Amino acid sequence: MKILFYPQYPDKEYYSITHIINSMHYHVTRDLTSHFDIAFLWQDSTQLSCPVDLVNTCRHQTIINQHCIDISKVKVELLHIDVFGYGCFVDPLTHKGLCVEKPNDNGVKGGHVISTPITRKHKDNVYQALIDSTIDEYQQEFRVPIIFGEIPIVYLIRQVPATQKLDNRAQLPPKLIATNTVFSAQEQQNILKFCRLIGLDFGELDIVRCRHSQRLYILDANKTPAGYGMLNYFLWQSQDKKAALATLSVTFDGAVKKLINNQPAPRSAFLESPTHE
C-alpha cells in the first residue's frame, strides 16, 4: 500500500502515523503524479486549507482529514457546545476565581493557571475553566485516538495538578484502558459526532471528566498526533507503548483497506458532510 502525504509528510519519529507506516510496511510518497492508494492531508499546523492540486488529483480517491482544517481551541469550544450543549470557556474580565489561560493555537506551550478577573485579555489566548479532574491526588486526562469513526483504545494520563504552569508537570506512565470502561455509549456517540463536525478522520483528542459534575470536556483535537518518540516524554512503559501502537496499526490498516475497496467518490474518510448536523 502507498499513501500520499501532502503538502507535508510525517518526518518525525514521534508521530503515531510514522510508527503505523513502519509497522504495516506501507510505502509513502509526496509526489502528486505518482501512483498511490489513498491520500492524507498532512500539515502540522492549527489552521490550513486543503490544496487545490491535491483535491484535483484525488477526484476518485479518499483524502484523510480533508475537512480537518481548523483545530484551534476556539473551534473546539464552538463544536463542543454544538454537540454536548456546554463548553468550558470563561470571560476572564468578569469571572472570579482561578482559570486556565493558554494559546489558541494547537500544540503551543505556555498555558498556566491565573486568578481572575483580569483587566485585559491576550488576543492570541483563550480562557478555560479550571476543571477539577483529580482522583487519588493526580489530575486525570484521557488521550483518545480516533481512527475513521472508531475509538480503539484510550490512554489514561495522570499528572500532578496544575497550580501555575501546565507544562512539564510530574506524571505517571500512561495506562491503557478499554473505551467502554471510561465512556458511556452516548458519550462515545457525542465524541464521534464532534470528530465528524471538525473533520477528524485520524487523530487524537484530549478529554477530561469533571469529578463533581461528571461532564466530559474535549480540550484539544490533534490531527498530527505525537508522543511516541524515543525521548519518551509520556514516560511510556515499553510493553504498553508497543501494545498501543499495535492496536492503532491494526485498526488503521483495516479501515484504510476498507476505504480503498469502497471509494467510488471523493470524500473525507468518515465525514459525510463538513457542515453541522
From TrEMBL:
This is ATP-grasp domain-containing protein. It comes from Pseudoalteromonas holothuriae.
